[in-house]
Amino acid sequence: MTETLHAPLLPPNDANDPANPPRVGYWHLWTDEQGVSHHAWCMLEHFTLKGVGAAAPQWNDPQPRGQATTVFTIQPVGWVGEWHENPAPQWIVPLSGRWWVEAMDGTRVEMGPGELAFGEDQGCIADAAGRKGHRSGTIGGEPARLMTVQLHVAPVHRPGHLR
Questions:
Q1: Measured between alpha carbons, how far is 146 from 161 in angstroms, rounded to an integer?
Q2: 20 lies in a domain?
Q3: Number of domains in the chain
Q4: Considering the entire predicted model, what is its pTM?
């Protein structure tokens, strides 16, 4: 049975209050020690108020420096990607349309424009039903346009480990 998870509502943050750094939520698809994928709601919360170049100060949460590959994808209406693992640990940002991701544990999340996900389900072990990694697909009557940023790093297999 599939259970659809929903992102918790976060209280609004006053981006003008330097004493109250913002927090940004994201879905983390990760693999446990038994090789089963799961969803976890996690937070980016290491923001500092700092200018970039001559720009006025803004909230930044820099991630570790490394090599990455950016891939833009367009999933047609009705598209379903059957069981597979993410090709690399990767950030996924829906630009338009909606899509869903189902983990091996039966949880499913649905996301739309501006929501964040981190796909890190490498190293899954196929279960008796042949499920390995995750399934994903589009929702509704328009294609899902996604931007992925694939990180050239080894998976960590721990939810919320991102800085």
A1: 23
A2: yes
A3: 1
A4: 0.90
